[in-house]
Specification:
The protein is of the alpha/beta class. The strands form 2 sheets. The protein has a 7-stranded mixed beta sheet with strand order 8-7-6-5-9-10-11, sandwiched between helices. It folds into 2 domains: 87 residues, Histidine kinase CheA-like, P2 response regulator-binding domain (Alpha-Beta Plaits), CATH 3.30.70.1110; 226 residues, HAD superfamily/HAD-like (Rossmann fold), CATH 3.40.50.1000. The longest helix has 15 residues. A hairpin with a 5-residue loop joins strand 7 and strand 8. Helices cover 41% and strands 24% of the residues. Helix 5 packs antiparallel against helix 6.
Length: 316
Protein backbone atom coordinates (compact mmCIF):
# COMPACT_ATOMS: atom_id res chain seq x y z
CA UNK A 1 0.00 0.00 0.00
CA UNK A 2 1.25 3.46 -0.89
CA UNK A 3 0.68 5.06 2.51
CA UNK A 4 0.65 8.64 1.27
CA UNK A 5 -2.20 8.02 -1.19
CA UNK A 6 -5.77 8.00 0.08
CA UNK A 7 -7.27 6.39 -3.01
CA UNK A 8 -6.36 3.88 -5.69
CA UNK A 9 -7.80 3.89 -9.21
CA UNK A 10 -7.38 0.71 -11.24
CA UNK A 11 -7.69 0.67 -15.03
CA UNK A 12 -8.30 -2.78 -16.55
CA UNK A 13 -8.26 -3.26 -20.32
CA UNK A 14 -10.76 -5.58 -21.98
CA UNK A 15 -8.15 -6.43 -24.61
CA UNK A 16 -4.54 -7.57 -24.45
CA UNK A 17 -3.04 -4.37 -23.06
CA UNK A 18 -3.56 -0.82 -21.88
CA UNK A 19 -2.24 1.42 -24.60
CA UNK A 20 0.65 3.65 -23.40
CA UNK A 21 -1.20 6.76 -24.52
CA UNK A 22 -4.18 5.74 -22.37
CA UNK A 23 -2.03 5.58 -19.24
CA UNK A 24 -0.69 9.09 -19.81
CA UNK A 25 -3.99 10.55 -21.04
CA UNK A 26 -5.82 9.32 -17.97
CA UNK A 27 -3.19 10.69 -15.60
CA UNK A 28 -3.30 14.07 -17.37
CA UNK A 29 -7.10 14.10 -17.15
CA UNK A 30 -6.92 13.37 -13.43
CA UNK A 31 -4.40 16.17 -12.98
CA UNK A 32 -6.67 18.60 -14.83
CA UNK A 33 -9.32 17.83 -12.20
CA UNK A 34 -6.95 18.47 -9.29
CA UNK A 35 -6.30 14.78 -8.66
CA UNK A 36 -2.66 14.24 -7.72
CA UNK A 37 -1.14 10.94 -8.85
CA UNK A 38 1.37 9.96 -6.16
CA UNK A 39 2.58 6.92 -8.07
CA UNK A 40 1.57 4.27 -10.60
CA UNK A 41 2.00 0.50 -10.43
CA UNK A 42 1.74 -1.84 -13.39
CA UNK A 43 -0.20 -4.93 -12.33
CA UNK A 44 0.04 -6.40 -15.83
CA UNK A 45 0.08 -5.22 -19.42
CA UNK A 46 -3.69 -5.00 -19.04
CA UNK A 47 -4.00 -3.31 -15.65
CA UNK A 48 -2.46 -0.32 -13.88
CA UNK A 49 -2.98 1.13 -10.41
CA UNK A 50 -2.96 4.91 -9.94
CA UNK A 51 -2.37 5.87 -6.32
CA UNK A 52 -3.92 9.30 -5.94
CA UNK A 53 -4.88 12.03 -3.53
CA UNK A 54 -7.88 14.29 -3.92
CA UNK A 55 -9.02 17.03 -1.58
CA UNK A 56 -12.74 16.79 -1.09
CA UNK A 57 -15.15 17.51 1.73
CA UNK A 58 -17.57 15.00 0.20
CA UNK A 59 -17.00 11.30 -0.48
CA UNK A 60 -13.79 11.23 -2.47
CA UNK A 61 -14.58 7.83 -3.97
CA UNK A 62 -17.84 9.06 -5.49
CA UNK A 63 -16.20 12.18 -6.89
CA UNK A 64 -13.30 10.21 -8.33
CA UNK A 65 -15.79 7.83 -9.94
CA UNK A 66 -17.51 10.80 -11.54
CA UNK A 67 -14.19 12.16 -12.82
CA UNK A 68 -13.25 8.74 -14.21
CA UNK A 69 -16.64 8.40 -15.91
CA UNK A 70 -16.21 11.87 -17.41
CA UNK A 71 -12.85 10.77 -18.82
CA UNK A 72 -14.38 7.68 -20.39
CA UNK A 73 -17.15 9.74 -21.96
CA UNK A 74 -14.86 12.57 -23.06
CA UNK A 75 -12.29 10.22 -24.57
CA UNK A 76 -14.83 7.66 -25.86
CA UNK A 77 -13.19 4.91 -23.80
CA UNK A 78 -15.40 1.80 -23.88
CA UNK A 79 -12.85 -0.99 -23.62
CA UNK A 80 -11.40 -0.22 -20.18
CA UNK A 81 -13.00 -0.68 -16.76
CA UNK A 82 -11.98 1.94 -14.19
CA UNK A 83 -12.34 1.04 -10.52
CA UNK A 84 -12.04 3.54 -7.65
CA UNK A 85 -11.38 2.43 -4.07
CA UNK A 86 -10.00 3.73 -0.82
CA UNK A 87 -6.34 2.82 -0.50
CA UNK A 88 -6.68 1.11 2.85
CA UNK A 89 -5.79 -2.16 4.55
CA UNK A 90 -8.97 -3.86 3.32
CA UNK A 91 -8.20 -3.57 -0.37
CA UNK A 92 -5.80 -6.53 -0.46
CA UNK A 93 -7.21 -8.21 2.61
CA UNK A 94 -10.67 -9.43 1.67
CA UNK A 95 -11.96 -12.37 3.70
CA UNK A 96 -15.39 -13.27 2.30
CA UNK A 97 -16.75 -13.41 -1.26
CA UNK A 98 -20.42 -13.99 -2.04
CA UNK A 99 -21.21 -14.96 -5.63
CA UNK A 100 -24.49 -14.97 -7.51
CA UNK A 101 -24.89 -18.07 -9.70
CA UNK A 102 -26.87 -17.41 -12.88
CA UNK A 103 -25.01 -15.19 -15.38
CA UNK A 104 -22.22 -14.82 -12.82
CA UNK A 105 -20.51 -18.09 -11.88
CA UNK A 106 -22.17 -19.65 -14.93
CA UNK A 107 -23.10 -18.10 -18.25
CA UNK A 108 -26.66 -19.41 -18.29
CA UNK A 109 -29.90 -18.91 -16.38
CA UNK A 110 -30.77 -22.32 -14.92
CA UNK A 111 -34.53 -21.79 -14.90
CA UNK A 112 -34.38 -21.20 -18.66
CA UNK A 113 -32.53 -24.49 -19.12
CA UNK A 114 -35.23 -26.33 -17.16
CA UNK A 115 -37.91 -24.46 -19.13
CA UNK A 116 -36.52 -25.92 -22.35
CA UNK A 117 -37.17 -29.42 -21.04
CA UNK A 118 -40.63 -28.40 -19.86
CA UNK A 119 -41.41 -26.75 -23.23
CA UNK A 120 -42.33 -23.48 -21.54
CA UNK A 121 -39.39 -21.34 -22.72
CA UNK A 122 -41.57 -18.56 -24.16
CA UNK A 123 -43.76 -18.32 -21.09
CA UNK A 124 -40.77 -18.21 -18.74
CA UNK A 125 -39.00 -15.63 -20.89
CA UNK A 126 -42.11 -13.43 -20.91
CA UNK A 127 -42.24 -13.41 -17.11
CA UNK A 128 -38.49 -12.77 -16.96
CA UNK A 129 -38.91 -9.75 -19.23
CA UNK A 130 -41.70 -8.36 -17.04
CA UNK A 131 -39.43 -8.64 -14.02
CA UNK A 132 -36.53 -6.94 -15.83
CA UNK A 133 -38.87 -4.10 -16.80
CA UNK A 134 -39.86 -3.70 -13.15
CA UNK A 135 -43.50 -4.63 -13.78
CA UNK A 136 -43.39 -7.50 -11.29
CA UNK A 137 -40.97 -8.13 -8.44
CA UNK A 138 -38.50 -10.98 -8.10
CA UNK A 139 -40.57 -13.13 -5.74
CA UNK A 140 -43.68 -12.91 -7.91
CA UNK A 141 -41.76 -13.61 -11.11
CA UNK A 142 -39.87 -16.48 -9.50
CA UNK A 143 -43.00 -18.20 -8.18
CA UNK A 144 -44.83 -17.79 -11.49
CA UNK A 145 -41.93 -19.28 -13.42
CA UNK A 146 -41.56 -22.18 -10.99
CA UNK A 147 -45.28 -22.90 -11.33
CA UNK A 148 -44.75 -23.45 -15.06
CA UNK A 149 -42.32 -26.29 -14.31
CA UNK A 150 -44.99 -28.49 -12.70
CA UNK A 151 -44.97 -32.02 -14.04
CA UNK A 152 -41.41 -31.87 -15.38
CA UNK A 153 -39.40 -34.94 -14.41
CA UNK A 154 -37.05 -34.16 -11.54
CA UNK A 155 -34.28 -36.39 -12.87
CA UNK A 156 -33.46 -33.85 -15.59
CA UNK A 157 -31.37 -32.07 -12.94
CA UNK A 158 -28.41 -34.39 -13.48
CA UNK A 159 -28.54 -33.86 -17.23
CA UNK A 160 -28.74 -30.08 -16.88
CA UNK A 161 -25.76 -30.02 -14.50
CA UNK A 162 -23.62 -31.32 -17.35
CA UNK A 163 -24.76 -28.41 -19.52
CA UNK A 164 -23.70 -25.71 -17.08
CA UNK A 165 -20.97 -23.51 -18.53
CA UNK A 166 -18.76 -22.16 -15.77
CA UNK A 167 -17.68 -18.58 -16.42
CA UNK A 168 -14.19 -18.15 -17.82
CA UNK A 169 -11.75 -17.42 -15.01
CA UNK A 170 -14.13 -18.44 -12.22
CA UNK A 171 -12.18 -21.60 -11.41
CA UNK A 172 -8.89 -19.71 -11.25
CA UNK A 173 -10.37 -16.87 -9.24
CA UNK A 174 -12.02 -19.05 -6.61
CA UNK A 175 -8.90 -21.23 -6.38
CA UNK A 176 -6.75 -18.17 -5.77
CA UNK A 177 -9.14 -16.83 -3.15
CA UNK A 178 -8.84 -20.06 -1.18
CA UNK A 179 -5.04 -19.81 -1.25
CA UNK A 180 -5.37 -16.23 0.01
CA UNK A 181 -7.41 -17.50 2.95
CA UNK A 182 -10.76 -16.17 1.75
CA UNK A 183 -14.06 -17.92 2.34
CA UNK A 184 -16.51 -18.06 -0.56
CA UNK A 185 -20.19 -18.83 -1.03
CA UNK A 186 -22.69 -19.07 -3.86
CA UNK A 187 -25.98 -17.50 -2.79
CA UNK A 188 -28.55 -17.74 -5.55
CA UNK A 189 -32.19 -17.10 -6.25
CA UNK A 190 -31.90 -20.21 -8.43
CA UNK A 191 -31.96 -23.80 -7.28
CA UNK A 192 -29.91 -25.61 -4.66
CA UNK A 193 -29.14 -28.71 -6.76
CA UNK A 194 -27.13 -26.55 -9.13
CA UNK A 195 -25.67 -24.30 -6.44
CA UNK A 196 -24.37 -27.39 -4.63
CA UNK A 197 -22.88 -28.67 -7.89
CA UNK A 198 -20.99 -25.39 -8.33
CA UNK A 199 -19.92 -25.49 -4.70
CA UNK A 200 -18.28 -28.84 -5.42
CA UNK A 201 -16.81 -27.79 -8.76
CA UNK A 202 -15.30 -24.56 -7.41
CA UNK A 203 -14.50 -25.76 -3.88
CA UNK A 204 -16.68 -23.11 -2.27
CA UNK A 205 -17.49 -23.08 1.43
CA UNK A 206 -21.27 -22.59 1.32
CA UNK A 207 -24.17 -22.85 -1.11
CA UNK A 208 -27.59 -21.34 -0.54
CA UNK A 209 -30.44 -21.39 -3.06
CA UNK A 210 -34.10 -22.31 -3.43
CA UNK A 211 -35.34 -25.90 -3.28
CA UNK A 212 -37.79 -27.13 -5.92
CA UNK A 213 -40.41 -29.35 -4.31
CA UNK A 214 -41.39 -32.63 -5.96
CA UNK A 215 -44.34 -35.00 -6.08
CA UNK A 216 -45.16 -38.32 -7.72
CA UNK A 217 -46.99 -38.42 -11.05
CA UNK A 218 -49.44 -41.12 -12.15
CA UNK A 219 -46.53 -43.36 -13.15
CA UNK A 220 -44.89 -42.98 -9.77
CA UNK A 221 -42.08 -40.80 -11.11
CA UNK A 222 -40.72 -37.82 -9.20
CA UNK A 223 -41.75 -34.57 -10.90
CA UNK A 224 -41.58 -30.92 -9.93
CA UNK A 225 -44.72 -29.85 -8.10
CA UNK A 226 -44.62 -26.26 -9.28
CA UNK A 227 -43.58 -24.90 -5.91
CA UNK A 228 -40.63 -24.60 -3.56
CA UNK A 229 -39.94 -25.64 0.00
CA UNK A 230 -38.00 -23.98 2.77
CA UNK A 231 -36.95 -20.37 3.10
CA UNK A 232 -37.09 -18.22 -0.03
CA UNK A 233 -33.67 -17.11 -1.20
CA UNK A 234 -34.39 -13.62 -2.49
CA UNK A 235 -32.62 -10.26 -2.50
CA UNK A 236 -33.03 -9.72 1.24
CA UNK A 237 -31.80 -13.24 2.00
CA UNK A 238 -28.58 -12.53 0.08
CA UNK A 239 -27.90 -9.38 2.07
CA UNK A 240 -28.73 -11.07 5.37
CA UNK A 241 -26.53 -14.07 4.54
CA UNK A 242 -23.55 -11.85 3.74
CA UNK A 243 -23.85 -10.11 7.10
CA UNK A 244 -24.48 -13.41 8.89
CA UNK A 245 -21.35 -15.02 7.41
CA UNK A 246 -19.26 -11.94 8.17
CA UNK A 247 -20.38 -12.18 11.80
CA UNK A 248 -19.69 -15.93 11.83
CA UNK A 249 -16.17 -15.32 10.55
CA UNK A 250 -15.74 -12.36 12.90
CA UNK A 251 -14.59 -10.08 10.10
CA UNK A 252 -15.46 -6.43 9.40
CA UNK A 253 -17.98 -5.83 6.63
CA UNK A 254 -15.25 -3.89 4.81
CA UNK A 255 -13.57 -7.27 4.17
CA UNK A 256 -16.60 -8.66 2.31
CA UNK A 257 -17.31 -8.69 -1.43
CA UNK A 258 -20.53 -9.32 -3.39
CA UNK A 259 -20.24 -10.36 -7.04
CA UNK A 260 -23.37 -10.42 -9.19
CA UNK A 261 -25.17 -9.09 -12.22
CA UNK A 262 -28.84 -8.50 -11.42
CA UNK A 263 -31.28 -6.39 -9.44
CA UNK A 264 -31.62 -9.25 -6.97
CA UNK A 265 -28.00 -8.69 -5.93
CA UNK A 266 -28.35 -4.99 -5.08
CA UNK A 267 -29.27 -5.27 -1.37
CA UNK A 268 -26.25 -7.52 -0.75
CA UNK A 269 -24.10 -5.16 -2.79
CA UNK A 270 -25.31 -2.27 -0.64
CA UNK A 271 -24.09 -3.87 2.59
CA UNK A 272 -20.86 -5.42 1.25
CA UNK A 273 -17.52 -3.71 1.68
CA UNK A 274 -16.99 -4.01 -2.09
CA UNK A 275 -19.47 -4.92 -4.80
CA UNK A 276 -18.52 -6.03 -8.30
CA UNK A 277 -21.07 -5.90 -11.12
CA UNK A 278 -19.92 -8.75 -13.36
CA UNK A 279 -21.32 -7.91 -16.81
CA UNK A 280 -24.16 -6.40 -14.84
CA UNK A 281 -27.48 -4.95 -15.89
CA UNK A 282 -27.30 -1.15 -16.40
CA UNK A 283 -28.80 -0.25 -13.02
CA UNK A 284 -26.52 -2.72 -11.26
CA UNK A 285 -23.45 -1.26 -12.98
CA UNK A 286 -24.51 2.19 -11.79
CA UNK A 287 -25.07 1.18 -8.18
CA UNK A 288 -22.26 -1.31 -7.56
CA UNK A 289 -18.90 -0.20 -6.16
CA UNK A 290 -17.37 -1.13 -9.50
CA UNK A 291 -17.99 -3.07 -12.66
CA UNK A 292 -15.97 -5.68 -14.52
CA UNK A 293 -16.80 -6.39 -18.16
CA UNK A 294 -13.78 -8.36 -19.30
CA UNK A 295 -13.66 -11.93 -20.61
CA UNK A 296 -12.25 -13.52 -17.46
CA UNK A 297 -13.53 -13.31 -13.90
CA UNK A 298 -9.92 -13.82 -12.79
CA UNK A 299 -9.38 -10.17 -13.74
CA UNK A 300 -11.03 -9.36 -10.41
CA UNK A 301 -7.63 -10.11 -8.88
CA UNK A 302 -6.52 -6.75 -10.29
CA UNK A 303 -9.28 -5.04 -8.32
CA UNK A 304 -7.62 -6.48 -5.22
CA UNK A 305 -4.28 -5.02 -6.33
CA UNK A 306 -2.55 -8.25 -7.32
CA UNK A 307 0.09 -8.39 -10.05
CA UNK A 308 0.30 -11.09 -12.71
CA UNK A 309 3.23 -12.64 -10.84
CA UNK A 310 1.23 -12.82 -7.62
CA UNK A 311 -1.78 -14.24 -9.45
CA UNK A 312 0.33 -16.94 -11.10
CA UNK A 313 1.63 -18.08 -7.74
CA UNK A 314 -1.91 -18.31 -6.38
CA UNK A 315 -3.37 -20.42 -9.18
CA UNK A 316 -0.41 -22.57 -10.21
Amino acid sequence: MVDSAKFVITAIAHGESLLPDFIDRFQNFLSSHEVLTVSKKELSQRATDYFVNFNSEADGVDQLKAISAAFQQDQAVTDVDIIVQKNDEHRRNKKLFIFDMDSTLIYQEVIELIAEYANVEKEVQHITNLAMEGKIDFVQSFLERVKLLRGTKADIVDEIKLKLQITEGAREFTKGLKVMGCKAAVVSGGFIQFANYLKEQLNLDWAHANTLSTEKNAEGEAVFSGGTEGEMVDADFKADKLLELAELLQIPVEATVMVGDGENDLPAMAVAGLSIAWHGKPNVRRRASCQLNTKSMADAFYILGLTDAEISRLIE
